[in-house]
Amino acid sequence: MASLAEIRARLQAAETNKGGQSSGGDNAIYPHWNMGEGHSATVRFLPDGDSKNTFFWVERAMIKLPFAGIKGEMDSKQVQVQVPCVEMWGDACPILAEVRTWFKDKSLEDMGRKYWKKRSYIMQGFVRENPLAEDKTPENPIRRFIIGPQIFTLIKSALMDPELEELPTDLMRGLDFRITKTSKGGYADYNTSKWSRKETALTEAEQAALAAHGLFTLSDFLPKKPTEVELRVMKEMFEASVDGKPYDPDRWGQYFRPAGIAAPSGSSSTSQVATDEEAAPAPVTPVAKAAPAASSFDDDAPAPTAPVAKPAAGGQNAQDILAMIRARQNKG
Fold first, then answer.
1. Which residues partner with 127 through β-bridges?
2. Residues contacting 310, CB < 8 A, separation 6+
3. pLDDT of residue 226
4. Selected residue with higher pLDDT from 328 and 134
5. Cα(283)–Cα(42) distance, integer angstroms
6. Less packed terminus of the chain by CB within 10 Å, N or C?
7. What residues does 182 pair with on adjacent strands?
8. Crossing angle of helices 318-331 and 94-102, rounded to 10°
9. DSSP per-residue string spanning 11-66
């Protein structure tokens, strides 16, 4: 298990490197996003089962591809497919390679953010105070948590506090974390979440559960790394999505599918079905206006690198935007 000093050093190094750059679910997952507004859940994070992991979390990066319905279905509503961003494995992402160029043009920024990778963080621990009336809780009380960047920022900033003496995941002197849900602009807001100031030991029941079940290896819950074939499929799906085309289950279903769509008959592929809506919680209340371009669950997208002489006219559709993108690439 990494020490607090090691975690701080790694976090500080990550911040330094960042500043130098140019720019299927199961009931083990605790759905804190289902809490009512004004409610809180108290959780106790645990270390990763992988002792080589410095942190008590693993980072996941996904790209959301919206489609204008499903090919061949009448009156089909918009669907969304999530695909893994291969930057998680240190590889070049074919989707972000194109999307990054969009941020050179201010009129394409919103489109760029739409297709930018979304980060989340997988952690594990006990739920000590649960405001949810869950129909069924798992036999193993060690739950997994899908934490968005807003909450993660609060978790990380506290770890860098020099007054913190012990790891929050220490079994005897650790700290609880209180996840509090409010709303801002009609969307869930977790900025009042915080660490407890009081150290506590795991209870006898929690220690027994830990001895009986052991810790999850968090990397086991990351998506599998796409093959070369899957990377080509991802790029093709991305281009179809930007073009405003429907999702084609016959062409892509054995690789990536929206929630609720079965694999094509006869398919032997172990497809990656991105059904984990927990990574992008729904708004607290329905609102008429569009969601902000960069929500608290979005990753940091690149800043524009070049001014644009004249903003594009409003009311552009996906085809117009794609034509602009392709034209600029051909010139370059």
1. 43
2. none
3. 96
4. 134
5. 22
6. C
7. 189
8. 90
9. HHHHHHHHHT------TTB--GGGSPTT-EEEEEE---S-TT-SSS-EEEEEEEEE
CA atoms 138, 142, 145, 151: torsion sign: positive
Domains and CATH numbers, the chain: 4-331 (3.90.198.10)
Q: What is the pTM of this model?
A: 0.74
Give the C-alpha separation, 196 to 104, whole Å.
43
Q: What is the distance between the alpha carbons of residues 140 and 126, in angstroms, rounded to a whole number? A: 10
Task: Name the amino acid, one letter, at 29.
Answer: I
Pairing mode, if any, of strands 58-67 and 118-129? antiparallel
User: Parallel, antiparallel, or unpaired for β 272-273 and 256-257?
Assistant: parallel
**β-strand pairing of 58-67 with 177-180:** unpaired
**Greater model confidence, 324 or 194:** 194
* 3 state SS of 135: coil
Per the CB < 8 A criterion, the answer to whether 57 and 217 are in contact is no
Using one digit for the tens of pLDDT, what is the confidence trace for 204-247?
999 999 999 999 999 999 999 999 999 999 999 999 999 999 99
- Closest by Cα among 17, 114, 4, 22 to 302: 22
Cβ neighbour number for residue 140 with a 10 Å cutoff: 12
CA 159, CA 155: separation in Å to the nearest integer? 7
Pairwise CA distance, residues 323 & 306, whole Å: 20
The SS3 assignment for 200 reads strand
Main-chain phi, psi angles of 250, to 5 degrees: -70, -35
**Alpha helix positions (H), the chain:** 4-19, 94-102, 109-114, 149-159, 204-213, 228-242, 249-252, 318-331
